């Protein structure tokens, strides 16, 4: 059985990827940080097949020990301080985990190595946030980076160091430049889930307003379940490389709000939505739209869930969850 080691296992993508790899017959190992991590017990209940190993992206020896224990064929580095807004207030932590964490994992892979005939393959979760103030539209693997947040800057370092280790040491290391990808497992702090959850709660009379930041920015939103397949496909190639995964469509935050409220039958959404400067960012990424032609051509990857289906899926999930919580 092939063996996979995933950092960020308790996050949205970690869970989707663990399920996907388990379905393909992998032994799945997930890295967990801290003591008594409450997210670990929840994950074990939902996915008992995942073997948890303790480790921290801030601590190289722990990464080496974790790899020695898991003996993986494939490492997926999904762990990060991943929320752009938080990265402004905890910039140093973001640089350390989201940026230097990649370097530590690459060093750990060099040290543990896998076997000579079967070297460890590495996937890095790069991000469309690296494009930031976009230099061209749509964005491809060759578009220059201009990050607009400490998170984006840390991801650029992670991306560049993967390329450098690939070129310097011949590692099988690939980066997926993933545009925003969402789903029912998205954390409530991200805009899609915040909006779908609020629409559900407002329609059930459990909440009366939704307080938002900038409604004008545009994102290329896909479904996380589609994107983890792309990660895996990258590691099945003979040669490591970098690939954009995106839908090629962009929608504004306002369109997201209109559609989510529409799903619960509310047309006069303006009655419920208020803007507050506290949700605006010091620097904004105004427009993202990706060109995934290379992934389509070389990996045969194609997103299956479009924007309307994604919003519908998330609203339906939030309606069911909120009804169950409120005993409705
Ligand atoms: P990001 O693309 O990784 O920053 O993903 P987010 O889901 O956190 O934010 C997407 C966009 O939504 C950004 O342009 C935010 O400024 C915008 N936005 C507007 N209001 C909100 C809000 O209340 N919460 C969040 N998270 N984002 C918001």
List keywords for this structure.
328 residues; 2 domains; UDP-galactose 4-epimerase, domain 1; 44% helix; 11 helices; alpha/beta; NADP+ binding; Rossmann fold; binds guanosine-5'-diphosphate; seven-stranded parallel sheet
- With strands numbered from the N-terminus, the spatial order across the biggest sheet is 3-2-1-4-5-6-11
Rounded mean pLDDT is 97
**What's the order of the H and E elements?**
EHEHEHEHHEHEEHEEEHEEHEHH
Q: Supply the number of helical segments.
A: 11
Number of domains: 2
Organism: Ilumatobacter coccineus (strain NBRC 103263 / KCTC 29153 / YM16-304)
Protein name: GDP-mannose 4,6-dehydratase
Catalytic activity: GDP-alpha-D-mannose = GDP-4-dehydro-alpha-D-rhamnose + H2O
Family: Belongs to the NAD(P)-dependent epimerase/dehydratase family. GDP-mannose 4,6-dehydratase subfamily.
In brief, what are we looking at here?
This protein has helices spanning 12-23, 38-46, 60-70, 84-89, 91-112, 150-169, 191-203, 224-235, 253-263, 293-299, 307-326, and strands at 3-7, 27-32, 51-54, 74-77, 121-127, 172-178, 181-182, 210-212, 218-219, 222-223, 242-245, 251-252, 273-275. With 328 residues, it is α/β, with parallel strands linked by helices. β2, α2 and β3 (51-54) form a beta-alpha-beta unit.
């Amino acid at each position: 059985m092939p063996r996979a080691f995933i950092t960020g296992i308790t996050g949205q993508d970690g869970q989707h990827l663990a399920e996907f790899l388990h379905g393909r017959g992998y032994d799945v190992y997930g890295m967990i940080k801290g003591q008594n991590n409450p997210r670990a017990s929840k994950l074990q209940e939902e996915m008992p097949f995942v073997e948890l190993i303790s480790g921290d992206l801030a601590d190289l020896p722990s990464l080496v020990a974790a790899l020695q224990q898991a003996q993986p064929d494939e490492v997926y580095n999904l762990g990060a301080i991943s929320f752009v807004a938080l990265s402004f207030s905890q910039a140093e932590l973001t640089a350390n985990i989201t940026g230097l964490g990649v370097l530590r994992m690459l060093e750990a892979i060099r040290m543990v190595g896998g076997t000579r005939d079967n070297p460890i393959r590495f996937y890095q979760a790069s991000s469309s946030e690296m494009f930031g103030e976009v230099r061209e539209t749509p964005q491809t693997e060759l578009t220059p980076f201009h990050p607009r947040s400490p998170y984006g800057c840390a991801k650029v370092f992670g991306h560049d160091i993967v390329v450098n280790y690939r070129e310097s040491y011949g590692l099988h290391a690939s980066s997926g430049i993933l545009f925003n990808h969402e789903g029912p497992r998205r954390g409530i702090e991200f805009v899609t889930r915040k909006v779908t959850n609020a629409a559900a709660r407002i329609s059930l009379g459990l909440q009366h307003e939704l307080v938002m930041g900038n409604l004008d920015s545009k994102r290329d939103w896909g479904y996380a379940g589609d994107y983890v397949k792309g990660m895996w496909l990258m590691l099945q190639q003979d040669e490591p490389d970098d690939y954009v995964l995106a839908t090629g469509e962009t929608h504004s935050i306002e369109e997201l709000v209109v559609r989510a409220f529409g799903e619960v039958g509310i047309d006069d959404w303006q009655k419920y939505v208020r803007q507050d400067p506290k949700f605006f960012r010091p620097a904004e990424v105004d427009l993202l739209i990706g060109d995934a032609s290379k992934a389509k051509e070389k990996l045969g990857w194609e997103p299956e869930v479009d924007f309307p289906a994604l919003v519908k899926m998330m609203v339906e999930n939030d309606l069911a969850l909120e009804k169950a919580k409120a005993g409705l």
